[in-house]
């Protein structure tokens, strides 16, 4: 469905104001903090007060493969691995040759940004891979999550030969991947009713094409309504009907969910994550609308029900993008490489400098590879 640009922009402004009033260390998001609400980050989003509900215990990871700690630590040190570092999760709306609204991105802007990230060593993972901790990228590389909201035709459409049209998001991603080996052509699409409406293929076929080609289809509710004032039954209907559409198209349930406008209440953390009627769902991760990089999924401060994203935009005055949008954050992470997620390339370990051991979520201790 079309995004309500003015409303969404206003909500982002609210998020920025909340961030401005937060403690002045808001840009120092390197080591995950034991109390994210006090840090003014993870627990604060557009319209949302800090949650007072503790995050539910995460499932214990599968039994780890054996590894030689000394060798693994030496290899991790060689690439300055920090798998407790921050991960930028970009929130993107319409993509077009000539943007028409403030949330739009031009094809060239997206191409230039993704190419720049590829040159810096960023490797995309899907939102589902991220929340599950399945960040299997080469040593020395940095994880990034590309998310697209609202199922716009500008994200995925095809020419007469069945190839992605050049100005679409998927075409840009595939072009950057082809020109920069190692940049995985994957992304997550949070869809509403009638996704990719008006395209050359019915929405159900487009969703199937995306899944076949490694992309993720995720839940964004049916009608993209503000959920704060909804009852439990209304929340269930909004999420459940969208979930049924996704399962009918892809043959599997959605792993992740994004709150429309980033709006949530404390109650919604439970109502939205699990459902039984009319369709059962169990989201592994739920995403907000701003305004900072996310903590590592291996960190004790990571709350899978309130994962922040970054608005995809250059450094402009609007909505304080000079400090809080994607260009500004990517520049900051480049200047502070010890704060960002850097892989050790070993799926059997979670590697990080020794002094960050206190920030590791306890269930991952047997995977720990401090150096």
Description:
The chain is of the alpha/beta class. It has one domain: Alpha-Beta Barrel (TIM Barrel). It has ten helices and 14 strands. Strands 1, 4, 5, 6, 7 and 12 form a six-stranded parallel beta sheet that branches. A hairpin with a 5-residue loop joins strand 9 (274-275) and strand 10. The longest helix has 19 residues, at 232-250. The N and C termini lie far apart (48 Å). Mean pLDDT is 85; it is low at 1-57. GO terms for molecular function: hydrolase activity, acting on carbon-nitrogen (but not peptide) bonds. Residues 31-56 have a biased composition (Low complexity). Keywords: Signal.
* Distance between the first and last residues' Cα: 48 Å
CATH homologous superfamily annotation: Glycoside hydrolase/deacetylase
Shape: globular
Radius of gyration: 19 Å
Mean pLDDT: 85
Please tally the helical runs, counting DSSP H or I stretches of 4 or more residues: 10
Q: Quickly count the domains.
A: 1
Question: What proportion of the residues is helical, as a percent range?
Answer: 25-40%
Q: What is the beta-strand fraction?
A: 5-15%
CATH topology: TIM Barrel
Poorly predicted runs: 1-57
Biased composition (Low complexity): 31-56
Domain NodB homology: 142-371
Region (Disordered): 25-64
Organism: Actinoallomurus bryophytorum
In summary, what is this structure?
This is Polysaccharide deacetylase. 29% of the residues lie in helices and 12% in strands.
Write the layout of secondary structure elements.
Layout: H1 5-21, H2 69-78, E1 89-92, E2 95-96, E3 105-106, H3 107-120, E4 122-124, H4 127-131, E5 142-149, H5 169-179, E6 188-191, H6 203-212, E7 216-219, H7 232-250, E8 256-258, H8 266-273, E9 274-275, E10 281-282, E11 285-287, E12 310-311, H9 321-324, H10 326-335, E13 350-352, E14 368-370
Parallel strand pairs: 1-5, 1-12, 2-3, 4-5, 5-6, 6-7, 8-11, 13-14
Antiparallel strand pairs: 9-10
Helix pairs in contact: 3-5, 6-7
